[in-house]
Amino acid sequence: MSSLVRINRLFPLRHLIPHATKNPIRNISKINNIEGLSWGNRTFLRFLSTETSPREEDYHSIIKDTEKPIGESTKHEFQAETRMLLDIVARSLYSEKEVFIRELISNASDALEKFRYLSISKEGAEKIKDVDRALEIHISTDKHNRTLTIQDTGIGMTESELISNLGVIAKSGSKAFIEEMKSKQTNGDNNIIGQFGVGFYSVFMVADKVEVYSRAAGEDQGFKWTSDGTGTYEIQPAEGVLFGTKIVIHLKTDCREFADDDTIKSIINKYSNFVGSPLYLNGKKANIVQPLWLSDPKSITPQQHNDFYRFVSKSYDMPRFTLHYKTDVPLSIRALLYFPEGKPGLFEMSQENQSGVALYTKKILIKNRADNILPKWLRFVKGVIDSEDIPLNLSRELLQNSALIKKLRDVLTAKIIKFLQDQLKKNQAEYEKFYQDYGIFIKEGIITNYDQAEKEEAAHLLMFESSQQEPNKKVNLNEYISRAADNRTIFFLAAPSRTLAESSPYYESLKTKNQEVLFCYEPYDELVLTQLRQFKGYKLVSVESDMRDDKTANDLTNLGEDSLKRSEIDELSNWVKDKLSGKADSVHATTRLENHPCVVTVEEMAAARHFIKTQSHNLPEDRRYSILRPQFEINPRHPIIKKLHKLTKSDPELAELLAKQLFANSMVGAGLVEDSRFLLTSMNELLVKVLDKH
User: Fold this and answer.
1) pTM of the model
2) Domain 293-428 is found in CATH 3.30.230.80
3) Which residues does residue 341 pair with via DSSP β-bridges, in sequence order?
């Protein structure tokens, strides 16, 4: 706060601020000797030099103009079939121009890895000079001259290697190096990234001219390679070349943004933040975030996870759960996945939202949002997946369509589901909070998935209230099965609330039998269970479907004295069906009801309710009924039904109004009416008719 106060009081020095911040005065004695400055102004400059400016020890760069071409240059042609191949590589292969930085940093990283390998090999240690040098990558920008420079301290190239590696398109020096390592049966990690030998040429998307200075490890002579990407290049000896490779890119006029410090920093963060060696931009360390997915899980602190999660997810909340996963069978996978603490927004809920998982290979970004690595319903998961087994296309931007991709997807999906199952077992209360926020994604996965095995795996994560548990306590399907009887059936009932579920006419008979029923309150819950069909060999059956399919409910032989007689039931059923012509597909009596006079059932009740909500708006009434084909079931022991039978003879007009009202009430109770306000008209007509009798 005191520093800010000092700034506000030093108005006369405002004109010095830009100069002081860009060119910090690091020697305090020089500030004290500046003539004409008051004590307060000197204090302000000390503040700028010590608090605003970077410390001198934080600045580190090896990029200097020490190279000087000597001797004559030799001109060469690119050894490719046609000029068109160079055009394709440089101008058509990549979707974004910015990826040339990723490619050049990857090449520099490979050069450092090759140097590491040679420095520990017997023949390399004898040949290499300056074996203990720091292995780094440096980048500098120059807006004034419109240049971008990338320099590494790696293995470097000889004249012949410049010709073979940079003069032959689609010849990968890195790939050849890997083959040599394999032939020597070298042990150790292979961190070489390059595969195709085309990444370097992406630089010609943005460059008018490219200069490469390189000096191979163990060599006294350096060389300069120059080309404008038009089919030829020149090579000449150069002095003052440091060990390694330096690339000076002269940018095209319309690509001047790549000479901007902030632009390059953003691209490094996006693609190359996790390269294995220190990476400096204009003298400042650029890759400060560590690749946590390669660290020992036990060594990572919660704060590191929080910081890394925010980095990869571009969000400001914290992870709720963390899955750190490593395996080499059946694929090499290193994954660090996070389950967000914050609730999903409308954008995250949309199926158009992309995956939140970034795909890397050997710490180099391949796809920022890898949609085909995890199923769409897991798009809420954030994090990083790194696999060197992933088959990439030439530009390293798209994944090849192969069985390996499906295998990777299956392995990761199964691991995530198993991880969430473990969270449910370890801490159900915490899992229920997660499920309340993200259960909709799990349900989407079951509805949209065609693989029954994967559906059933995801179904382990579902939770519902149960008729045999107290309100607000949720159970999963495994708990239900542990208490299930021998009928191998899981019953469920859709209702807006527990009160309506427990008072539902469909639940009456199962309640009498003390049969456990899962209550589905949320939208699409019953559709999820209908799509799931079965779980661990248990059939999932809605209580409405069970009522409709129950043949024993049609046995009217033991109705008792308080019921209509069989002949009266048949007479009433036929009469009601006639009055409900065009609405009820059939009318018959049932023994499944006790406290309710009637009920409506249809085939596939969940699908029927979904149809009413989403597709029936513009259909005429008769068309809707012809699609639904509702079955009207009456309770011959209920006082209203017995009274209705009498009214069919004593007051047919009132009986008809009553029959239609009972049917309409049943349709509303079944959730098969889009807007229940239409009941008011028929209900008022019925009331008027009843009151006329008194």
Assistant:
1) 0.72
2) yes
3) none
